[in-house]
Amino acid sequence: EPRSPCCCLAWALLITAINSLVFLLNLLLMFVIFTVVLLPTIVVVYFGFQCHSQVLHSSARYCKSILDDNSSSALIILGFVIMSPLLVVAMAIYCSLARRLQLLVCFQPYSLALYKGGCCCHPGKGAPCCARGCNTQLKAWV
Protein backbone atom coordinates (compact mmCIF):
# COMPACT_ATOMS: atom_id res chain seq x y z
CA GLU A 1 0.00 0.00 0.00
CA PRO A 2 1.43 3.44 -0.88
CA ARG A 3 2.63 5.77 1.86
CA SER A 4 1.26 9.26 2.41
CA PRO A 5 3.30 12.10 0.82
CA CYS A 6 4.62 13.31 4.18
CA CYS A 7 5.59 9.81 5.28
CA CYS A 8 7.10 9.12 1.86
CA LEU A 9 9.30 12.21 2.17
CA ALA A 10 10.42 11.22 5.67
CA TRP A 11 11.29 7.69 4.54
CA ALA A 12 13.11 9.04 1.48
CA LEU A 13 15.23 11.26 3.73
CA LEU A 14 15.94 8.34 6.06
CA ILE A 15 16.92 6.08 3.16
CA THR A 16 19.12 8.85 1.75
CA ALA A 17 20.84 9.17 5.12
CA ILE A 18 21.37 5.41 5.38
CA ASN A 19 22.74 5.18 1.83
CA SER A 20 25.03 8.17 2.48
CA LEU A 21 26.34 6.53 5.64
CA VAL A 22 27.00 3.25 3.82
CA PHE A 23 28.75 5.19 1.03
CA LEU A 24 30.96 7.01 3.55
CA LEU A 25 31.84 3.75 5.29
CA ASN A 26 32.80 2.23 1.94
CA LEU A 27 34.89 5.31 1.16
CA LEU A 28 36.62 5.15 4.56
CA LEU A 29 37.37 1.45 4.13
CA MET A 30 38.79 2.08 0.66
CA PHE A 31 40.91 4.98 1.95
CA VAL A 32 42.37 2.89 4.79
CA ILE A 33 43.16 -0.07 2.51
CA PHE A 34 44.76 2.06 -0.20
CA THR A 35 46.80 4.02 2.36
CA VAL A 36 48.16 0.89 4.00
CA VAL A 37 48.95 -0.89 0.74
CA LEU A 38 50.48 2.16 -0.97
CA LEU A 39 52.55 3.17 2.07
CA PRO A 40 55.84 1.78 0.62
CA THR A 41 55.34 3.81 -2.54
CA ILE A 42 54.52 6.94 -0.58
CA VAL A 43 57.63 6.59 1.60
CA VAL A 44 59.99 5.86 -1.30
CA VAL A 45 58.74 8.76 -3.44
CA TYR A 46 58.78 11.11 -0.44
CA PHE A 47 62.42 10.38 0.38
CA GLY A 48 63.34 10.61 -3.30
CA PHE A 49 61.81 14.05 -3.65
CA GLN A 50 63.08 15.23 -0.28
CA CYS A 51 66.73 14.47 -0.99
CA HIS A 52 66.94 15.49 -4.66
CA SER A 53 68.85 18.77 -5.09
CA GLN A 54 66.51 20.08 -7.81
CA VAL A 55 63.34 19.58 -5.74
CA LEU A 56 63.56 20.08 -1.97
CA HIS A 57 67.22 19.38 -1.15
CA SER A 58 66.83 18.64 2.54
CA SER A 59 69.74 19.16 4.89
CA ALA A 60 69.03 15.93 6.76
CA ARG A 61 72.00 13.70 7.56
CA TYR A 62 70.76 10.75 5.48
CA CYS A 63 70.37 13.02 2.45
CA LYS A 64 73.99 14.15 2.67
CA SER A 65 75.60 10.82 3.53
CA ILE A 66 73.46 8.20 1.76
CA LEU A 67 71.33 9.74 -0.99
CA ASP A 68 72.76 11.82 -3.80
CA ASP A 69 70.86 13.06 -6.88
CA ASN A 70 71.23 9.77 -8.77
CA SER A 71 69.95 7.64 -5.91
CA SER A 72 67.12 10.12 -5.25
CA SER A 73 66.09 9.87 -8.90
CA ALA A 74 66.21 6.09 -8.64
CA LEU A 75 63.95 6.19 -5.58
CA ILE A 76 61.44 8.40 -7.38
CA ILE A 77 61.40 6.10 -10.42
CA LEU A 78 61.16 2.99 -8.23
CA GLY A 79 58.26 4.49 -6.31
CA PHE A 80 56.26 5.21 -9.43
CA VAL A 81 57.08 1.80 -10.94
CA ILE A 82 55.86 -0.16 -7.90
CA MET A 83 52.73 1.99 -7.67
CA SER A 84 50.88 0.15 -10.48
CA PRO A 85 51.03 -3.36 -9.02
CA LEU A 86 50.25 -2.05 -5.55
CA LEU A 87 47.15 -0.27 -6.89
CA VAL A 88 45.96 -3.58 -8.32
CA VAL A 89 46.63 -5.33 -5.00
CA ALA A 90 44.78 -2.62 -3.06
CA MET A 91 41.75 -2.81 -5.36
CA ALA A 92 41.71 -6.62 -5.13
CA ILE A 93 41.81 -6.45 -1.33
CA TYR A 94 39.00 -3.88 -1.23
CA CYS A 95 36.82 -5.83 -3.68
CA SER A 96 37.26 -9.12 -1.84
CA LEU A 97 36.55 -7.47 1.50
CA ALA A 98 33.48 -5.68 0.11
CA ARG A 99 32.21 -8.96 -1.32
CA ARG A 100 32.87 -10.90 1.88
CA LEU A 101 31.16 -8.26 4.07
CA GLN A 102 28.44 -7.77 1.43
CA LEU A 103 28.80 -4.00 1.65
CA LEU A 104 26.96 -3.31 -1.59
CA VAL A 105 23.86 -5.13 -0.31
CA CYS A 106 23.57 -2.48 2.41
CA PHE A 107 22.33 0.17 -0.03
CA GLN A 108 18.57 0.49 0.39
CA PRO A 109 16.24 1.00 -2.61
CA TYR A 110 13.98 4.05 -2.70
CA SER A 111 10.95 1.82 -3.26
CA LEU A 112 10.94 1.38 0.54
CA ALA A 113 9.91 5.03 0.81
CA LEU A 114 6.95 4.58 -1.54
CA TYR A 115 5.27 1.42 -0.25
CA LYS A 116 4.46 0.12 3.23
CA GLY A 117 5.44 -3.40 4.19
CA GLY A 118 8.46 -3.73 1.90
CA CYS A 119 11.37 -5.86 2.96
CA CYS A 120 14.55 -3.87 3.57
CA CYS A 121 16.93 -6.76 3.10
CA HIS A 122 17.45 -9.72 0.85
CA PRO A 123 16.41 -12.91 2.69
CA GLY A 124 19.07 -15.56 2.82
CA LYS A 125 21.94 -13.20 1.98
CA GLY A 126 22.92 -12.60 5.60
CA ALA A 127 24.40 -9.16 5.09
CA PRO A 128 25.46 -7.55 8.37
CA CYS A 129 23.38 -4.41 7.79
CA CYS A 130 20.08 -6.17 7.07
CA ALA A 131 17.32 -6.17 9.64
CA ARG A 132 16.81 -9.60 11.11
CA GLY A 133 13.41 -11.22 10.95
CA CYS A 134 12.49 -9.82 7.56
CA ASN A 135 9.02 -10.93 6.49
CA THR A 136 9.31 -12.37 2.99
CA GLN A 137 5.51 -12.54 2.50
CA LEU A 138 5.10 -8.77 2.32
CA LYS A 139 6.11 -7.58 -1.14
CA ALA A 140 5.06 -4.68 -3.33
CA TRP A 141 4.97 -6.91 -6.41
CA VAL A 142 3.52 -10.32 -7.24
Automatic annotation (TrEMBL):
Topological relation to the membrane, as annotated: Multi-pass membrane protein
Location of this chain's protein in the cell: Membrane
Membrane spanning residue stretches: 21-49, 74-94
Keywords of this entry: Membrane, Transmembrane, Transmembrane helix
One cellular component (GO) term of this entry: plasma membrane
Superkingdom: Eukaryota
Gene Ontology molecular-function annotations: PDZ domain binding
Keyword Transmembrane helix: yes
Similarity comment: family membership: Belongs to the TMEM88 family.
Protein name: TMM88 protein
Gene this protein is translated from: Tmem88
